[in-house]
What we know:
Elements: H1 14-55, E1 60-69, E2 73-75, E3 81-86, E4 93-94, E5 99-103, H2 106-175, H3 182-227, H4 236-253, E6 256-258, E7 263-266, E8 275-276, E9 283-286, E10 292-298, E11 310-315, E12 323-331, E13 357-364, H5 366-371, E14 379-385
Antiparallel strand pairs: 1-10, 1-14, 2-9, 3-5, 3-8, 4-7, 5-6, 7-9, 10-13, 11-12, 11-14, 12-13
Amino acid sequence: MADAAGSAPITADPVVDTEAEATAFRRKQARRLWLTRLAIAIVAIGLLWTAWYMLFGRNHVSTDNAYVNAEMAQVTPLIGATVAEVKVSDTQAVRRGDVLVVLDPATPQIMLAQAEADLAAARRRFRQAEAEADAASAQVGASGADIGRAQAAVASAQADFEKARTDYSRRQALAASGAVSGEELTSARRAFDAAQAALTAARAGQAQAVAAERAAQGQYQASAAVVSGSTEDTDPAVRSAIAKVQQARIDVKNTVIRAPIDGVVTQRKVQVGQRVAMGAPIMTIVPVGQLYIDANFKERQLRRVRVGMPAEVTADIYGGDVVYHGKVAGIAGGTGSSMALIPAQNATGNWIKVVQRLPVRIALDPRELAAHPLRVGLSTEVEIDVSGN
């Protein structure tokens, strides 16, 4: 220890300094070892990731923006009527041809009866037209005979007129010499006048017979035009009536609404006693055995994707324990934004590029769907193997 007059510097204990340096050295060594191990781990992870990417990752594209979808059948009545029965309820499984809804058939049956009556009337009118055509044809023949008789009458009257004129002329020539009496000349004059009148009447009768023949011919042509080239079953009026009967029978048949496909009933909107309109949706049938996946991939992921490539699908409802195997069935013709109701307008100075997604349809194995059923709208993850390209 230094005295009061002056102090000497205090030196550390050599043993203590050595222990501090040793501790610091050990810490430095430990830190270096830890950093070395960390670097080795990072390099190992990088090598493993590179190996994974080269061997597997670069040959697969995946997305979790994928959902279950289906070609659903919308059930709509083909006629307007009142609902008499509803045979199904929501979530019920149905087979194609099963009865879903029964409509009141009273009005369609009445329309069918009316159509059948109109068909019978059309057939009767056609048969009547055929009979009228036959009668007109016979009338034409009778008119031809009347013309022949009229011509014969004209010829006879002409002969009588010529004889009466000759007799009258001869007597008129002899009357001046007194060889023919006045009474005989008067009688000849009367015979001549009578023959001339008979000839005029015969000619008028001939003209009338010709006119009657022309009228009969016109009536025959009109009647024949109605039935010409047609039979009772090919007549236009009859065919129109047949079509109405067939339509009425279809309307009666359509009072029973059947399932168009196999599936599950969804969104049933119809009740007994409700008046339904033609074409108004009353329920939807989802074909759960024919579902597919609509996976929305980023545009850069689709460089090597082709139709027919294998794909694996996992659904959130089952987790990774259930893997569905499918294939690429098709690639949409446009991105979701381009097909939107109001497409985005990029013709502005504030445009920012946004990575687009394109829907890709993945067809699933029906057997796997039967083993693990899915429902429309469920979330899935899709991975496509592009190593084949």
